[in-house]
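Re: your question about Putative voltage-gated ClC-type chloride channel ClcB

S., sorry for the slow reply, the queue was backed up all week. Below is exactly what I fed in.
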Amino acid sequence: MEVSPEHISAFHNVKKHPKITEYITRFDTETTKVNSIAIIIGLLTGFVIGVYDQTLQYSNTFLGMQQGSPLHEFPNYYVLFVPALGGLLVGIISHFLMKKKYGVDGLIETVTLRGARLNLKDVFLEIFTSIITISSGGALGKEAPGILAGAGTGAFLGKILKSPERQLQILLGCGAAGGIAAAFNAPLAGVVFVVEVIYGELETRTFIPIVISSVFATLVSSTLFGVKPIEIPSYEMVSPYKELGLYLVLGLLAGFISTLLIRTLYHTKDIFSEIPLHPVFKPALGGLAVGAIGLFYPRVLGMGYDVITDALNNQLTFKLLLILLFLKILAFSLSLGSGGSGGTIVPSLFTGAMLGGAFWTIANLFFPGIVAEQGAYAMVGMGAVFAGTARAPLTAILILFEITRDYNMILPLMFACVLSNVMSNALYPESIFTEGLRRRGFKIRKGREVDIMSSMLVKDAMITYVQTVSEEKSVETLTALMQVSRHVGFPVLDSKGKLSGIVTLSDLRSKVKSGDVDKKVKDIATRRLEVAYPDETLDAVLKRFASKQIGRLPVVDREDKTKLLGLITRSDIVNAYNKKVVEKVRVHAEDTY
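Result:
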């Protein structure tokens, strides 16, 4: 059919009609655009999570390390060394191909402080290394990589659309919500997780697109790929008034176990950071230790969905429940603390199921006839320990509620989750996510930085071109260098170009006598160095300046403290702070007008 000039003219006249123009203008808004993009993100995230879940299942089957596999058919060295080989591969990929590992804490940092800019290559590699870690026996969960996959999907779409920073933050939240919603078939929990953990507060303009993305992601993953969470039977309270006292005790115990899990994880990270071993081999060492545990208790290997199901169905003895409770915490800490990739939610659920099951045994011994089934306590324990570790009680309640679709246990579940959150917060002020941020000097509360200095890194303020002095130079040469450069301190390098100390004007004054100019720099240099790292915050370094009464710090590599990367001084920090303040004022002015 040929389009005549009259048709074209009529079309333009319709567009110019006041009513038509009004409708077009009404729907052509920023909110409509974001909600439309949220639909696309939800669909893509559901597909990505489905592919991720299928890939993980195939790799688990291939390696035969998941619960239910005929491990007895393999020789002992197989169970011992497969986690180590998986760790070695993860170490190689992480060290040589990745610049940054995210996880949920890294995602919080990115959304809050880094303009919601993700390195998509690192995101993909972290998801890939999580598959390797989990399928080779690492005691981690699949949900954090799923959250990261969803956030990466949102970031990818935002990059294509060239979205501004604020819109990109919303798109990342849409993807993250879709990731956890698709993984647990729990759209409402996905929404609340992002609001409670990543954003820290609820805003109307972010809530609607996150809900949309979460719903569509769940539809795609469940209908197309059949992604299913843990199957939990229905339970009922036998004696509601009397049992609430028992759930109170369970909630408090869950808070204690949550704190133990967080402390064990970060203590393990500290141990591995001090081990004099190349970073490539640390995940392999952690995998070897996990494999050694798996030799005797293979149920701790992998995610452990089947073990959780056994606890829910009263198929584990009291002794085994306690053993698996503490060994899972240890295996989880070794897997993640050594450098493996994976999530923390499923290990928290696993630990909670073991705790609840063991607690039921004791409760039933002292109060026979008034307690519900063991699975009821295991289920409530799952939610309570997750609430304590993540400091996300509402998310924990909703995940378990959406999995069970059962209202009968909602009261004890809510009671235990809230008490666990209160208890763990009293024992340890940081969650399993924010503790990692705190150790890097960040103080993020309610999705915002508490202090400007806590959001600025050493690498953004340090001097990379550093004037150094050889330790073999004479004091006379050092004095001349100070006079020419007008610097009062220099990093000292040995014959191999490695950092061996620092020499300052105060060293000259206190350690060199008048006329003793032939003495070498190495004789007067300070060897016990205070150093800074490029990923530390300026707030942490400024406190070090004050406590040690020094004015400069060499910046070194965390893995090799003799590798000089730069130098940072008090004036560098002041200049960086001033620039940040000016930038914030300018941005605020642009937003206002």
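The longest strand covers residues 499-504. Residues 240-274 form the longest helix (35 residues).

Happy to talk it through on Thursday.
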